[in-house]
C-alpha cells in the first residue's frame, strides 16, 4: 500500500542566524529563528513523511523543549525520520517540496538541496524535487518576515520503491 503525506513549516527571519535550507547554508543577511537550525524545508519534509506513516509531527519526535535538539542539523532529524519510515517498511517513492520566500533567490542552491535530501532519504535525486517561489511581495513571506515550505511525499513499500527508481 502506498502512503501520501503533506508537511508545512514556517519560521521567522531574524538577524544573527544562518539561513539553512535543505541542509545548505544560503548567504543572506537574515536567518531563520528556531530551536534547531530552523530549516523550514527539511521540517516540512519530515512532517510529510511522519504524516504518511501516521506518526504525528516533528514536534512530537523532536520537541523544542529538549536541549538535545538545540542547534541540531535538520538533516540529522530527516535521517531519523527516514529510519522510522524504513522500520515500518516504507521508502521514498517521490518527494516534491516548495520553499516560499521573497528573498534571497534560491535557484543557485536548489541542486545541492536536492542532493542533500536524496542522500538523507536513501533516494535517487530523480525522486526528489525542490522548487522555490515568491509571493509577489504579499503576506509575511513577501514582506521578508519569514520563510515557509510545503512538502508532499509518496511512500511505497521498500520493495516497490526500488522498482519505482526512475
From TrEMBL:
Pfam families linked to this entry: YgbB
Pathway the protein takes part in: Isoprenoid biosynthesis; isopentenyl diphosphate biosynthesis via DXP pathway; isopentenyl diphosphate from 1-deoxy-D-xylulose 5-phosphate: step 4/6
Cofactor(s) the protein needs: a divalent metal cation
EC number: 4.6.1.12
Keyword annotations of the record: Isoprene biosynthesis, Lyase, Metal-binding
Cofactor, how bound (note): Binds 1 divalent metal cation per subunit.
Catalytic activity annotation: 4-CDP-2-C-methyl-D-erythritol 2-phosphate = 2-C-methyl-D-erythritol 2,4-cyclic diphosphate + CMP
Binding site for 4-CDP-2-C-methyl-D-erythritol 2-phosphate: 9-11, 35-36, 57-59, 62-66, 133-136, 140, 143
Matching InterPro entries: MECDP_synthase, MECDP_synthase_CS, MECDP_synthase_sf
Boundaries of every 2-C-methyl-D-erythritol 2,4-cyclodiphosphate synthase domain copy: 2-155
PROSITE patterns (UniProt xref): ISPF (PS01350)
Role, per record: Involved in the biosynthesis of isopentenyl diphosphate (IPP) and dimethylallyl diphosphate (DMAPP), two major building blocks of isoprenoid compounds. Catalyzes the conversion of 4-diphosphocytidyl-2-C-methyl-D-erythritol 2-phosphate (CDP-ME2P) to 2-C-methyl-D-erythritol 2,4-cyclodiphosphate (ME-CPP) with a corresponding release of cytidine 5-monophosphate (CMP).
UniProt subunit comment: Homotrimer.
Name of the protein described by the UniProt record: 2-C-methyl-D-erythritol 2,4-cyclodiphosphate synthase
Upper classification of the organism: Bacteria, Pseudomonadati, Thermodesulfobacteriota, Desulfuromonadia, Desulfuromonadales
Record gene name: ispF
Amino acid at each position: 500500500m502506498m502512503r501520501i503525506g503533506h508537511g508545512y513549516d514556517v519560521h521567522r527571519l531574524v538577524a544573527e542566524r544562518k539561513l539553512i535550507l535543505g541542509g545548505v547554508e544560503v548567504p543572506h543577511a537574515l536567518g531563520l529563528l528556531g530551536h534547531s537550525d530552523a530549516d523550514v524545508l527539511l521540517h516540512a519534509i519530515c512532517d510529510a513523511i511522519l504524516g504518511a506513516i501516521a506518526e504525528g509531527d516533528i514536534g512530537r519526535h523532536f520537541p523544542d523543549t529538549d536541549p538535545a535538539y538545540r542547534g541540531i542539523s535538520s538533516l540529522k532529524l530527516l535521517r531519523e525520520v527516514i529510519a522510522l519510515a524504513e522500520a515500518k517498511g516504507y521508502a521514498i517513492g517521490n518527494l516534491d517540496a516548495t520553499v516560499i520566500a521573497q528573498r534571497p533567490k534560491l535557484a543557485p542552491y536548489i541542486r545541492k538541496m536536492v542532493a542533500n535530501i536524496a542522500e538523507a532519504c536513501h533516494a535517487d535525486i530523480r525522486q526528489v524535487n525542490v522548487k522555490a517561489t515568491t509571493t509577489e511581495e504579499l503576506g509575511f513571506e513577501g514582506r521578508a518576515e519569514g520563510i515557509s515550505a510545503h512538502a508532499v511525499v509518496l511512500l511505497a513499500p521498500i520493495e516497490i520503491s526500488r522498482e519505482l527508481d526512475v
